[in-house]
Amino acid sequence: LALTRRYWSHDKVAILDAQDNISSCLCNLGRHDEALVLKREIYARLVTTLGVSHEDTLLSGMNLILSLRKAGLSNEARTLLRDPLLPAARQSLGPDHNYTLRLNQILANSLRDHPQRTRDDLLEAETIQKDVVQRRR
């Protein structure tokens, strides 16, 4: 990270990529809280730098959501999915893009796996999964 900042200080995305690699290492070391803090920072900076609809931002948001779910913060993950991420992915990448489909799958899994899920949550998860399967064909 220090070398990236020194030699590519003008390239904000390269610095964020290096930080994302660090957050992955932290996860692999079991330091999930530290990784989650870093992933939040990276996502926020990408939104500011590239906008929420950029592919790099959407990928970072997807990684953040997965980390939030691992940390037991499913409500926050679903809120992030429903509000900025899925609409941005659908608008900028289209409904059939791999990132859009993956975000839909994550939402369906989140609805299905939530301990306080309702019948409506399960029905919505089923509808989303059927749509994803149809689009992947």
What can you see in these coordinates?
The protein has 137 residues and is mainly alpha-helical. Helix content is 81%, strand content 0%. The protein has 7 helices and no strands. Helix 2 runs antiparallel to helix 3, helix 3 (32-50) packs antiparallel against helix 4 (55-70) and helix 5 (74-92) packs antiparallel against helix 6. The chain is globular, with a radius of gyration of 16 Å.
Q: Beta fraction of the residues?
A: under 5%
How confident overall, as mean pLDDT? 88
Roughly how many Å is the radius of gyration? 16 Å
Contiguous helical run count: 7
Low-confidence stretches: none
Sheet having the most strands: none
Number of DSSP-assigned strands: 0
The end-to-end distance, rounded to whole angstroms, is 41 Å
Order of helices and strands: HHHHHHH
What percentage of residues falls in helices of 4 or more residues?
over 70%
| Protein structure class | mainly alpha
- Shape type: globular
